[in-house]
Amino acid sequence: MAKILSSINTSDENFKKRYEHNKELIKEIEDIKAVIKNGGAKKSHEVNKERGKLFCRQRIEKVLDKGSPFLEVAPMAAYNMYGGEVPSAGIVTGVGRVSGREVMIVANDQTVKGGTYYPVTVKKHIRAQHIAMENNLPCLYIVDSGGAYLPLQDGVFPDKEHFGNIFYNQAVMSSKGLLQVALVTGLATAGGAYQPAMCDQCIIVKDTGAIFIGGPPLVKAATGEVVDAEELGGADVHTRISGVADYYANDEEAGIRKVREIFANYPKGEKFPIDRVSPKEPYYDPDEIYGIIPDNLEAPYDVREIIARIVDNSEFEEFKARYGQTVVAGFARIGGYLVGIIGNNGAIFPESSTKAAHFIELCSFRKIPLIFLQNITGFIIGKKYEHQGMPKDGAKWVHAVSTTNVPKFTVIVGNSYGAGNYAMCGRGFNPRFLWMWPNSRIGVMGHNQAADVLTQVKIKQYEREGKTLSEKEIENIRNPILEDYKNKSEALYSTARLWDDGIIDPAKTRQYLMLSIELSLNKKIGEVNFGIFRM
Amino acid sequence: MEYSECEKKRILVANRGEIAIRILKAIRELGHTAIAIYSDADKFSPHLTFADEAYYVGESEASKSYLNIDRIIEVAKKNKIDGIHPGYGFLAENTKFADVVKSSNMVWVGPQPKSMYDVGDKIRAREIAKSAGVPIIPGVTLGSNTDPVDAAKGLGFPILIKASAGGGGKGMRIVRDERELIDNVDIARKEAESSFADPTIYFEKLLEEPHHIEIQVLADKFGNAYYFPERECSIQRRYQKIVEESPSTTIDRMQAKSMGEAALKVIKEIAYDSAGTVEFMVDKDKNFYFLEVNTRIQVEHPVTEEITGIDLVANQIEVAFGKSLSFNQDSLNIPKGHAIEARIYAEDPVNNFIPSTGKIDYYKIPYGAGIRLDDGACKGFEIPIHYDPIISKVIARGKDRKQSLYRLHKALSDYHILPLKTTISFIMNIIKHPEFIKGCYDTNFINKNYEKLFDENEEYIPLAIACYYYLGSQGFSNEYNLDGRETLKECWQHLTNFRG
Amino acid sequence: MSETVKINNKLWEYELDKEDNCFIVKIDGKVYRYEIYMIGDELFVKENNKYIKISYFQEKDGLNLWAEDAFYKISEESEEELIEEESEKDIKAPMPGIIKEVLVEVGQHISKGQTVVVLESMKMSNELKASVDGEIKEIFVAVGDQVDAFATLVRIESE
User: Fold this and answer.
1) Domain of A170?
2) Per-domain residue ranges for chain B?
3) Do B499 and A70 touch (CB under 8 A)?
4) DSSP for B442-463?
């Protein structure tokens, strides 16, 4: 394969300006992440420490293999939601290695509102389970939760992908041979009692772990019976008398050791073999990405420069380079694995759509995973293209993306507006993982465009009533709409609502892709099975 | 040296490993044809590649191959062998073998069988030394009428009970008082019977601060005999030599001369006509006493070769085929520099020196000025369990003791063998020990300093950690899975501690 | 962050940082700086003004490293042994049965492993032994009593 020839000049003024700007952006994100990773109120931490309870992130660090990576999913969920009082939605989810195999870990953060489930918390828990199901990962639940957050129960309980779905997923995963393990380090109450009960194997910690359908206050209220938590549903009760739990742990460390032992005795399974050679670091320094991303998202940049700083040895075998040039497609290697990459250099034309669909077919037949680097404002409009059948060609592409047999990974590196999001494998098209860069934006259309459209509507409305608006009045209508749209299309807004799996450091995109490609190979790549392409 | 076809001799080496290589090389260097023998365990042994012809002699067990006199003679006769060199160990001091070789009209590269017989029995050897006017360690033979207690009291405790037919450090017991004596006498007799087929034992007075110093001798069939500068072999573990050096730091050249002349007296007394060694014990007052005669070329012969420049093995072969020697004895006694040898055994010092056998996966040898490596192994060679676990000898020569010590230390640092356990680190600790560096040590050195010889060098631990980390993060350093195939490291293993 | 590693069967705690090409190792409060390069199949290490060549050989169970005259076998510390669960001090019946023998008295000192009660069940005798050294505090049963599973038979206070 040939190396991409970069034309970036790192001593250019613009480069330096952009570098500073992007470094600032990522620093903001990292600062937010650092605060979020501290969990809830200091007092909660202290109380837990007294009781011998570890912080949920500490539990995860201890259960992971020494030196294991930890790919956290949506660390900034619920950011700026619920009054900003629920950092990380009160639950930590991510993939790490336990006894040599990748495991999806879901750990309640008891320091955040007692680990109760807010609507976003449920969404995050279920997203983690979906990732596990799609990639054939066993699951570890470190249970320490007070159950549903009652004031918002209508967003937590009744619907299809609400609380009950958690247990459904556990049963379905178990039926597919994906080990489900629970380590009860705190409360598992009411419906939550089903988390350990529905697991294949379950460990409960003495003194702090407790499983019961109804806790002491409920029991007293219902039948007058007075009984404390330990005697009602503590470790001894469940491992000796009821059989609800399988292992008794003297303390959390012992429980964690037991978890590791359980995973060690679970068959490892082979990864699906795809083409792989010895990996190489990119020839161009990934750090330069900071200087490539424009500080103004309207400005274009060549996506090949990004590709060059993600792939092995910066080598890229470009497909159909002279045709449909607004889409860049080609083969490369990441971490040694052969992958197909699709990126945007401008609006989508009919030619670029068919090129992309063709490329997806190639990758599908050869079982080559697909990476989408999204920076798209939309499909081209205008009479010429409508008559050419733009939607038809766009449909070919979207169809290929939807029905391909290979795992897909999407990174939004710029804009993600409108139908372009679909073609480039947005959230609705089930990529195994979808990440955003700090500078990225997502919406049905750009904020400026949206503000213009809506302001026009308002102006027309006033005109019908016979009113004409002054410049200033138009401004006053436009600005709030603009701000609102800007706010709602920001990466932070998206990641808080789990529209993505996290905001990542652009310079680390390669590592994220390496880890996720490799873990996706826990699931076999099936045979090609496209539907009908409208020709 | 080019011989005509009829002058070229076909000489068979009835041995294996490092000494076989040594002798095979010497044979070829003399212009003769070298023939090797091998057992099942040695069918890929490097020593075969140093021979012009190699013949199979039997199963791995020594008794069926390297000790199988009938088989070896059969192979020799069939292949028109002119002479046999027995090396050391195996049949080297077996008079029956020597007799059979000679009666089969082949040259025996060793002394005449009668001299082997004379000094093969330790008691007889002592008598011979005594009659040659050489001091012997005060001792008493235990005849059937001798009262052990009286005999021991006469000598004075502590005493050493030795088997008359024993040798090479085997069959010896120390007793320190009457009670220990009574407990051990019968056992010693029984052991002598089972190990050496002769229950005769004798008592020797145990010397204080003893040194084991031996004299290499070389004699021809014409009555010429010479002695070489002494070898100090006091570094011993359970009577097995580990480190030898020449000249000794204990005696001076004058004393060396006295000992050399005493050695020659013994040699002449038995009409010895090959290479051999006369061993002495030297006490704290520098008195020397005859110990025994080794009627063969020894493991540690390279030490002498290095400080004299004389090829002992080549001379031994030539002498056997009728060459006469004419060295200048006085200049021989002047050592040219200093040499120290370390014997490298495939043993695990940490686990009581149990033999560590198996295939060598990594083999890196030392080299440089003054370094001589006599080895019988290579990468991929499987050290067999059936034989003595000696891998090689490292000999360092220098202009003085200090230089040879430095060179030996460097050579041992550079000598890497895996995955077997070897005595390399143990020996490094020996030569780094202050007493050894000063040159003040006796045969109790190892026992006295045992614990310290297992010290670990922790100086480079931080460096090792940094390198370990470097190699781990270097990239996908390839791994080997269970059937030896190389595999690529997974991304999940490579991106250590990634947090995202 | 402090790490542990096993070198020649001894555990070592250390901290490691990387600055450009420089590896900084902290052990026991002392700081060491090394620049490390791979030359051929050996490592070239620079510490201040000293250069050292390191040979290494990776095996399944660890990395073998030779530095000057030292030899190190380096591997990750192995998983700790699982600690035994805290055992029940009191003597409890493992299954329903009849008390055949009571071998102790209240106040008596007993040692770990000593048989305290013999229970007969399903035609088999079970010797119930003390799991700790201690004193017999209370005896709840007498010979001939029928007991349920998990019933506490004797209370022991450990020393």
Assistant:
1) 27-264
2) 10-109, 138-205, 211-454, 461-494
3) yes
4) -TTHHHHHTGGGG----TTHHH
**C-alpha distances in angstroms, B146 versus B151, B154, B190?**
7, 12, 17
Using DSSP's 3-state secondary structure scheme, residue A403 falls into: helix
Q: Cβ of C150 and A240 within 8 Å? A: yes
Residue C100 binned pLDDT confidence (cut-offs 50, 70, 90): confident
Separation of alpha carbons A505 and A437, rounded Å? 7
Q: Say if residue A480 is preceded by a cis peptide, omega within 30 of 0.
A: no
pLDDT digits (tens, 9 = 90+) for A48-88: 999 999 999 999 999 998 888 999 999 999 999 999 999 99
Average the pLDDT over B413-438 and give the result. Answer: 94
- Taking CB atoms and an 8 Å cutoff, what residues of chain C touch A66? 76
Query: H/E element holding C72?
Result: strand C70-75
Distance CA B454, CA C57 (A): 23
Distance CA B269, CA B202 (A): 22
Residues C49/C33, Cβ–Cβ less than 8 Å: no
Pick the CATH number of B138-205 from 3.40.50.460, 3.40.630.10, 3.40.50.12160, 3.30.1490.20: 3.30.1490.20
Q: Given B457, B474, B477, which is nearest C70 (Cβ)?
A: B457
Q: How far apart are CA A143 and CA B434, in angstroms?
A: 62
Q: Which residues of C touch B424 (CB under 8 A)?
A: 71
Taking the domain B211-454, which CATH number applies?
A: 3.30.470.20
Among A428, A441, A328, A437, which residue's Cα sits nearest to residue A377? Answer: A441
Share of chain A above pLDDT 90, in %: 77
Active site residue B22: no
- pLDDT tens digits, A127-174: 999 999 999 999 999 999 989 999 999 999 999 999 999 999 999 999
Spatial separation of the C-alpha atoms in residues A342 and A332, rounded to whole Å: 11
Give the whole-angstrom CA distance, residue B371 versus residue B407.
Answer: 7
ipTM: 0.86
Q: Side chain identity at A142, as an amino acid letter?
A: I
Nearest to A97 among B475, B492, B500 (CB): B492
How far is A206 from B129, CA to CA, in rounded Å?
83
Task: Average the pLDDT over each of B92-106, B112-126, C137-151 and give the range with the smallest value.
Answer: C137-151
Q: CA nearest B422 in C: which residue?
A: C71
Q: Determine the Cα–Cα distance for residues B59 and B63; give it in Å rounded to an integer.
A: 9
Mutation site, C50, C68, C75, interface B, largest B CB count within 10 A: C68
